[in-house]
Amino acid sequence: MKAQIIKAVGGDFTVKVGTHTSIVKGRKKLKGDRLLVGDFVDVDFENSVIESLFPRKNMLVRPPLANIDQALITVAPVPKPDFLLIDKMLIKYFSLDITPVIIINKIDLCATELVSEICRQYKGVCDIQMISAHDTHQTATILNPILSGKFSILTGQSAVGKTSILNSLKPEIQMEIGEVSRIGRGRNTTRHSEIFVLENEALLADTPGFNALELDEFTPEDIIDNYPELHHFGKICKYNNCNHINETEADCAVKRAVKEGNMNAERYKRYTMLYNIAKEKERKKYG
Ligand SMILES: Nc1nc2c(ncn2[C@@H]2O[C@H](COP(=O)(O)OP(=O)(O)OP(=O)(O)O)[C@@H](O)[C@H]2O)c(=O)[nH]1
Ligand SMILES: [Mg+2]
Ligand SMILES: [Zn+2]
User: Fold this and answer.
1) Residues 108 and 189 in one domain
2) Closest residue CA from atom 8 of ligand 1
């Protein structure tokens, strides 16, 4: 029977079918395929053993998770957001067919500046929501409809409140939360992966925070492909293979959109940076 792995501890896998969960083992022949939390598997429930693995829609390596539908990119007024990091996350999730949603958390702190900044830069790129994880009612009202029926992950910088959001949505679990360190960076409290089942078949996993992300495997074309604004304006560019950097505003629709305020200039500037880094990497690799 088809089931989904929602937790893995040692060789024990917790699998879910509908509202039913049970703990099973993996067949020895599956050793070659490492089973991940999020994997769909065929389970022989009589013998409590996983028989086979279904193909994955996508997977993350750190933390190891499979078949993710949606990423809640969490930001907060403290620690201060790193916009380049947000852009890199967006590129990565778009490339994996994971729908990103920016969650502005800690709006009980002074967040108006951050809210307008995020809206200015990311409106039209992805959905943006505002919550305070300390307000459980508000968090549930806003997030439950977004999470319904999908497997989502909480992701983002350390100490933005990812675990607090999970705790707010599922008060009975109360995972350990960390303090924001004095330099505002946090200290990575969350370490293991497990999927929590919320109302309306919503699946949610917390992930450890990070403060850096490398897009090592991304080519310059991948960077372009996973920047939605470039898709939009790039389609009407005069040049077929325009990188939207070298041509003039008269010819490049993207540059024109930036000049006319239709594409955010900071997003564009960071695009050129990421494109050039990927280009340089390609040059070094292929001479
Ligand atoms: N004022 C305020 N503080 C919050 C809110 N949400 C979380 N915090 C605080 O932010 C700190 C970090 O919270 P965590 O939930 O551990 O953050 P995290 O993103 O899971 O951190 P890592 O697991 O280290 O990546 C804690 O001190 C929380 O109490 C909020 O909505 N408002
Ligand atoms: Mg955490
Ligand atoms: Zn162009």
Assistant:
1) yes
2) 161
What would the DSSP string read from start to end of the chain? -EEEEEEEETTEEEEEETTEEEEEEE-GGGGGS---BT-EEEEETTTTEEEEEPPPS-EETTTTEE---EEEEEE-SSSPP-HHHHHHHHHHHHHTT-EEEEEE--TTSS-HHHHHHHHHHHTTTSEEEE--TT-HHHHHHHHHHHHTTSEEEEE-STTSSHHHHHHHH-TTT-----PPPTTS---------BEEEEGGGEEEEE----S----TT--HHHHHHT-HHHHHHHTT-SSTT--SSSS-TTT-HHHHHHHTTSS-HHHHHHHHHHHHHHHHHHHHHH-
Q: What is the pLDDT of residues 122-166, one digit of tens each?
A: 999 999 999 999 999 999 999 999 999 999 999 999 999 999 999
Q: How far is the CA of 205 from the centre of ligand 2 (A)?
A: 11
* pTM for the model: 0.93
Quick one: which ligand is closest to 234's CA? 3
pLDDT of residue 49: 96
Confidence at residue 178, expressed as pLDDT on a 0 to 100 scale: 65
User: In CATH, what number is assigned to the domain containing residue 264?
Assistant: 1.10.40.50
